[in-house]
């Protein structure tokens, strides 16, 4: 029977694709292994063979026969959590399915380890009872992970909710204190369900065998060293930390809007690219400010527009300022909803990237040497901005109003600064050096490959879960 690693990502293409890349990487060092990836089904979701995620899964299955996808049956439930946190509830209520899947798989494979996403942490109950060695894969960076692992300590020490604090948060091991403005909103109100889910997840992750991070030493080595020294665990047992990044998806979907063809006609490093992730949706007033800001900047641009749900039925002329598309047709391109981001960032015409600071996007920009303008929207993205702007100095910070709104004047000035000023040139020089460091980390003898080998060696110490009895006391009933 084949040695197998089971991966269990959160909902969302960013988490899934990053986990798939981890599976591919594991196979490069352990070609005799197989990978099984458990896929959650969103509620009220109708998967079709033509959906982008299904096309991606089909492509991976055809290219990597050792990677298998196993769909978890859908569940019926309601949740009050925002979209990007719904995996917490869905995975918890899917535990009985996960147990039965692992039990079934164990009859035909040597189940070496299970690797969970921190959003699917509730499955740790299953793997612990089955005595399966369990690791976590953190799809964001080491700084975000450090604050996440330290969260239970912050909670224990807090005399009032974080949202009511008016002083910086101190983290032993991070270069500087952290403003509560940069702390994730979801972790500020101790009475909210989001807070409680994140706290439970953080406590669970602290108990695992090891944590795999999508980062590399050249950009976050000081923080990973601090975690390895136990600074975010205090006197507790410290899980092993493995930095194996950068893990990025090189291809995903087509180019129906012919963005790359348009870029072919633009001068080298002359275009600023704006894209805010699959959940980066804006109101009509904010879209108008972005449009006006781009005009003010006088720069060439490629902009992926996603509007709030009630505005999806409007066409671009209705969403954007009157005459904007006509006025900018010689120097700008605007597309709806999706574009081949990684291929665009790798194009010679791209000179800057306005990003929501999602970690996958950050790593893609670093790997292609594209300087950034940081405009975080939710979750840990403000922490990522802190790393990019203050630590690595490879991005400019967009100043937001109290409600998160960004004015046209502010955006226009930052875009022009990045593309034309000496400061922008210095940022570009720094990130080009990081591009080289990223390649070296994954090269022969690089820090990430060294950690990957350590990870594989640690699995050799673990036993396997095989041939569980049908009467196992740990089998879940369908009502669990």
Helix content: 40-55%
What's the overall geometry? globular
Number of helical segments with 4 or more residues: 18
Radius of gyration: 23 Å
The largest beta-sheet arranges its strands as 3-2-1-4-5-6-7
Mean pLDDT: 90
Hey, roughly how much beta strand do the residues contain?
5-15%
How many runs of DSSP E, i.e. beta strands? 13
User: Unreliable runs, pLDDT <50, ≥5 residues?
Assistant: 464-480
Major sheet characteristics: 7 strands, parallel
Structural class: alpha/beta
C-alpha termini separation: 30 Å
Question: Your description of this structure?
Answer:
The chain has 480 residues and is of the alpha/beta class. The chain is 40% helix and 14% strand. The chain has helices at residues 13-29, 52-63, 87-92, 95-105, 124-129, 142-157, 193-205, 217-228, 259-264, 284-297, 316-319, 324-327, 341-345, 359-368, 381-391, 408-420, 422-441, 447-459; strands at 2-8, 34-39, 67-71, 109-117, 134-138, 210-213, 240-243, 271-275, 300-305, 332-336, 350-355, 372-374, 395-397. The strands form two sheets. A seven-stranded parallel sheet has the order 3-2-1-4-5-6-7, sandwiched between helices. It has a six-stranded parallel sheet with strand order 10-9-8-11-12-13, with helices on both faces. Helix 10 (284-297) links the parallel strand 8 and strand 9 (300-305). Helix 6 (142-157) packs across helix 7 (193-205) and helix 16 crosses helix 17 (422-441). It is globular, with a radius of gyration of 23 Å. The model is unreliable at 464-480 (pLDDT under 50).
């Amino acid at each position: 029977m084949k040695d197998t690693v089971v991966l269990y990502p959160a909902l969302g293409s960013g988490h899934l694709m990053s986990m798939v890349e981890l599976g591919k990487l594991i196979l490069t060092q352990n070609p005799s292994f197989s990978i099984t990836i458990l896929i959650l089904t969103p509620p009220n979701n109708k998967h079709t063979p033509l959906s982008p995620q299904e096309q991606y899964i089909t492509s991976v299955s055809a290219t990597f026969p050792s990677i298998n996808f196993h769909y978890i049956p859908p569940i019926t439930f309601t949740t009050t959590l925002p979209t990007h946190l719904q995996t917490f509830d869905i995975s918890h209520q899917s535990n009985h399915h996960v147990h039965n899947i692992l039990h079934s798989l164990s009859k035909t494979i040597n189940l070496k380890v299970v690797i969970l996403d921190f959003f699917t942490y509730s499955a740790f109950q299953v793997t612990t009872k089955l005595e399966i060695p369990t690791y976590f894969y953190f799809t964001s960076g080491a700084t975000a992970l450090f604050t996440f692992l330290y969260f239970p300590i912050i909670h224990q020490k807090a005399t009032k909710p974080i949202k009511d604090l008016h002083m910086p948060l101190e983290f032993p091991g991070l270069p500087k204190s952290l403003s509560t403005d940069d702390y994730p909103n979801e972790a500020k109100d101790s009475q909210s369900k989001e807070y409680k889910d994140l706290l439970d997840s953080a406590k669970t992750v602290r108990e695992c065998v090891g944590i795999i991070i999508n980062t590399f030493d050249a950009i976050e080595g000081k923080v990973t060293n601090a975690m390895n020294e136990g600074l975010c665990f205090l006197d507790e047992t410290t899980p092993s930390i493995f930095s194996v990044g950068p893990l990025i998806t090189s291809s995903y979907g087509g180019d129906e809007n012919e963005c790359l063809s348009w870029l072919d006609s633009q001068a080298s490093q002359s275009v600023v690219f704006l894209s805010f992730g699959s959940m980066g949706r804006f109101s009509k007033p904010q879209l108008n400010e972005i449009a006006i800001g781009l005009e003010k900047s006088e720069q060439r641009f490629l902009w992926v527009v996603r509007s709030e749900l009630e505005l999806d039925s409007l066409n671009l002329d209705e969403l954007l300022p009157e005459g904007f598309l006509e006025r900018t047709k010689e120097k700008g391109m605007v597309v709806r909803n999706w574009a081949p981001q990684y291929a665009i960032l790798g194009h010679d015409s791209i000179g800057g990237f306005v990003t929501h600071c999602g970690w996958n996007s950050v790593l893609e920009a670093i790997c292609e040497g594209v300087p950034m303008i940081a405009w975080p929207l939710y979750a840990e993205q403000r922490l990522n901005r802190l790393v990019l702007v203050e630590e690595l100095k490879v991005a400019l910070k967009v100043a937001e109003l109290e409600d998160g709104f960004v004015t046209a004047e502010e955006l226009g000035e930052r875009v022009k600064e990045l593309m034309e000023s000496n400061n922008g040139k210095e940022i570009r020089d720094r990130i080009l050096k990081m591009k080289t460091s990223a390649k070296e980390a994954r090269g022969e003898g690089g820090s990430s490959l060294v950690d990957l080998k350590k990870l594989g060696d640690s699995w050799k110490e673990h036993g396997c879960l095989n041939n569980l009895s049908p009467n196992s006391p740990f089998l879940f009933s369908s009502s669990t």
